[in-house]
Amino acid sequence: MTSVKILGCRLDPLDSDAAVEQILSLARGGRGAQIVTLGTEMVVYAQRDVRFRAIVNDAALSLCDTVGLLAVARRRGADLHERVAGVELIERLASGAAAEGLPIYLLGGGEGVAADAAAALQRRHPGLRVTGTRNGYFRDEESAQVVAAIAASGARMIFAGMGFPRQEYWLSEHLHETGCGVGIGVGGSFDVIAGRIERAPQPVRRLGLEWLYRLVKEPRRWRRQLALPRFVWLVALDELGLGPARNEAARS
Questions:
Q1: Of 73, 7, 4, whose CA–CA distance to 242 is shortest?
Q2: 108 pairs with which residues across the strands?
Q3: Model pTM?
Q4: Rounded Cα gap, residues 227 and 233, in angstroms
Q5: Count of alpha carbons within 13 angstroms of residue 168, beta-carbon side
Q6: Is residue 130 assigned to a domain?
Q7: Do residues 69 and 11 make contact, with C-beta atoms less than 8 angstroms apart?
Q8: Is 86 inside a domain boundary?
Q9: How many structural domains compose the chain?
Q10: Please, is 57 exposed, middle or buried when counting C-beta atoms within 10 Å of its C-beta (0-12, 13-18, 19+)?
């Protein structure tokens, strides 16, 4: 597998089947492998946060979660046919975990959301072992208690749905302490799986317009969508040799 760099962020060109296979393998035998589901907004954020960019580049896997990254990766020669969206990734991994008896833990969302998502996953994937859930509203000083609960649960996979960059920072700092083989940042996926937020219809997702559907449904997200035109602008500068990622590489 040959990774590509997009604005200084590593992207591994894995489609869903390959990603699920590798993650399940890490969950079975690994310890503390962090998986990043990378989106355009995260890449833009990484331009001003060196620590966050380092987490992305040091992750065991950095997967393509948005159509913008998919388009740029293909343009740069990556053999990538689809994005690996958080909701589908959780469902696929839950299916594999149920088949292999791998216990999972859900961390994040508002009060009761992770528990509802866990119940929905168990209904759809009989035999799935969910050894614990917790909302994502806890203070930094409570992290030791959260880590202890996860470690005691015996989970091999933890899904962290606390939004970026917090979920990536938290996993980077605490994943090894939990004893889990794998930790995956999944953003707001629990709300969708729990039925709290309606997902875009399949035809809309196929067209790569899920972001627009979410914006129409949740207009308060408009500030977040400003990252998309900025991403396009930064990629254009980068391809002209004028972007910050190129300049930083030239100085090193």
A1: 7
A2: 161
A3: 0.87
A4: 10
A5: 25
A6: yes
A7: yes
A8: yes
A9: 1
A10: middle
